[in-house]
Amino acid sequence: MNPASHLSLEHAALSRLVDKLNQEQALLTEATAEGLTDIISEKANIVAEMSTLAGNRHALLGKLGYSEDEAGMQKWMNEHASDADRDIWAGLFELAQDAKELNRVNGLLIGKKLSINQSALTILQGKTGTGNFYGPDGQNSIKSSGRRLGVV
């Protein structure tokens, strides 16, 4: 019974998640967001896989008398793990930090896109403080105080 036996699977899953987060970020910085739905679905599947793997590891730690969390895993690693297991465990933490930062930046990008879209909807719905851009006759209803362009 080795709680580190599937760390390589967790590492692979987390690597796939980081790749998806990078793909998501690339799409969020483009003018179009085509493909985001697929990436969101793929991310959800990877996170579910990671959750299952971590849950199994935590349950095994509990059977071995350790706390069923990362602190318990760290204690087990300090007492029983091979150098290779320690390397994978350290790599997991590095990848987790990368994923956390990518997710934070992607969240900011999503927030910015939502704000832009909300502003555009507000303008299109005529809810600006200046009223509608066009009146019932189809003419521009925004009056300017300057002279018209092209008129002397």
TrEMBL record:
Q: Which domain of life is it from?
A: Bacteria
Q: Which GO terms describe its biological process?
A: bacterial-type flagellum assembly
Q: Which UniProt keywords apply?
A: Bacterial flagellum biogenesis, Cell projection, Cilium, Flagellum
Matching Pfam families, A to Z?
FlgN
Q: Which family does it belong to?
A: Belongs to the FlgN family.
Free-text function comment from the UniProt entry: Required for the efficient initiation of filament assembly.
Name of protein: Flagellar protein FlgN
